[in-house]
Write a structure and sequence with these properties.
It is built from seven helices and ten strands. It is an alpha/beta fold. The chain has one domain: P-loop containing nucleotide triphosphate hydrolases (Rossmann fold, 3-Layer(aba) Sandwich). It has a six-stranded mixed β-sheet with strand order 6-7-8-3-9-10, sandwiched between helices. A four-stranded antiparallel β-sheet has the order 2-1-4-5, covered by helices on one side. The longest helix is centred in the last third of the chain and has 16 residues. It is globular and about 50 Å long. The two termini are about 25 Å apart. The structure holds adenosine-5'-diphosphate and magnesium ion. Magnesium ion binds next to helix 1.
């Protein structure tokens, strides 16, 4: 028997029931992802990329089939366990950054730290993470609407890293950025991969897929 995959999907189907009829967003997807892989998920709009990422990130539960994170079946976990797993193991980066507009950049990064640790960061971790992605102390006092897209994505990368997750999930992280800024964000992801993190990124960008160990192509909710 080989090592336990960090992520395993076993015949996962996700159906969104709508009045107009069911939408089969993922159709019997089986795949394994190993620790330390850099995966690009590609496919046309509506092919189920975000749905797949949301299942992997435990933001949603499959309609059918099983999802295992580090060998643990998420169906067998109670809510509290799932919340803890998500906070400790998975970092999310979104196309539209999804920062909280009324909090400063610093507070946005601190927020999941407070959720997990229930106490303030006295180690300088939040500040150091922001510095490591190129956000200095002065900029960290700004709120997201006062920052450029590239700066907001840097803040959201720091936020995704604050609890030191093994897995980083990115949904079109460069989709709202110009190509130069997008390249800088990709370089950050490549560096995080080099440090040993498992990276799974949805992308339309063929340049991004160059960095990947493996490309998972989706068509109509199926791995093709
Ligand atoms: N919350 C939802 N409710 C209903 N249908 C949805 C929902 N999210 C996605 N879908 C549908 O599921 C399919 C896959 O969507 P999505 O995973 O967002 O694709 P992609 O990210 O590849 O563009 C699409 O047909 C989309 O309209
Ligand atoms: Mg999407």
């Amino acid at each position: 028997m080989g090592a336990v995959s960090v992520i395993e999907l076993d015949h996962v189907t996700k159906i969104y029931p709508l009045k107009a009829g069911d939408v089969v967003a993922l159709d019997d997807v089986t795949l394994r992802i190993d620790r330390g892989e850099f995966i690009a998920i590609m496919g046309p709009s509506g092919s189920g990329k975000s749905t797949l990422l949301n299942q992997i990130g435990c933001l949603d539960v499959p309609t059918r089939g099983d999802l295992l994170i580090s060998g643990k079946n998420i169906r067998k976990m109670i809510d509290q366990e799932l919340t803890t797993l998500r906070l400790a193991t998975i970092g999310f980066i979104f196309q539209k950054f999804n920062l909280i507009p009324v909090l400063t950049a610093f507070e946005n990064v601190e927020y999941p730290y407070l959720m997990k640790n229930r106490r303030e960061d006295i180690t300088g971790r939040v500040r150091n993470l922001l510095l490591s992605v190129g956000i200095d102390n002065a900029m960290a006092q700004h709120r997201p609407p006062e920052l450029s897209g590239g700066q907001q994505q840097r803040v959201s990368i720091a936020r995704a890293l604050v609890n030191d997750p093994a897995i980083l999930l990115c949904d079109e992280p460069t989709g709202n950025l110009d190509s130069k800024t997008g390249d800088q964000i990709m370089e950050l992801l490549v560096e995080l991969h080099r440090q040993g993190r498992t990276i799974i990124t949805v992308t339309h960008d063929a340049r991004v897929s160059r960095f990947a160990d493996r490309i998972i192509s989706l068509t109509d909710g199926r791995v093709s």
